[in-house]
Amino acid sequence: MQAAMRERDKDRLAIIRLLLAAIERRAIDERSTLDDTAVLKVIEKLIKQGQESARQYTEGGRRELAEKELAEVTVLQAYLPEALGDTELDALIDQVIADTGATTIKDMGKVMNAIREAAQGRADMGSVGGRVKGKLGR
User: Are 73 and 7 contained in the same domain?
Assistant: First the structure.
């Protein structure tokens, strides 16, 4: 935040303030201090909201607002850990399947929960679900 203030980057500063307010609001709602995992969930939620807003703006013909939302998403993504690569993600899925003893698609819930914890903020859970389904559906 201080770097954005020094650089007089008003857009990035506004996004950081929005993020800090969302984190503070969640901490107050839960009446506790948020750990790193909870903060990552807040960031992911704001990113999803921004992507959804951009999609709706695009459908509504408001290109300039969609671009603004996507710019905000880009700034927020900088605060997430580095994303897992395809090979790392496949290795994690294989490891979790082996650890949980999952064999059928009925075990997908416990596999996804374990992956969600292990890959917090580093993988899109929608694409992970498809990969897990593919591996368990064999």
Answer: yes
Q: Which domain holds residue 97?
A: 86-136
Q: How many domains does the chain have?
A: 2
| Residue 72 shares a structural domain with residue 91 | no
Q: How far apart are CA 52 and CA 48, in angstroms?
A: 6
Pair of tokens at residue 129: 């679900």
Amino acid at 65: L
What are 56's two structure tokens? 């709706």
Distance of CA 69 to the CA centre of its chain: 16
pLDDT computed for residue 44 by the predictor = 86
pLDDT, tens only, 48-92 = 999 999 999 999 999 999 999 999 999 998 888 887 888 888 888
Which two three-digit tokens encode residue 77? 């993504």
Exposure class string for 55-82: b at 16+ Cβ within 10 A, else e: eebeeeeeeeebebbbebbebbeebeee
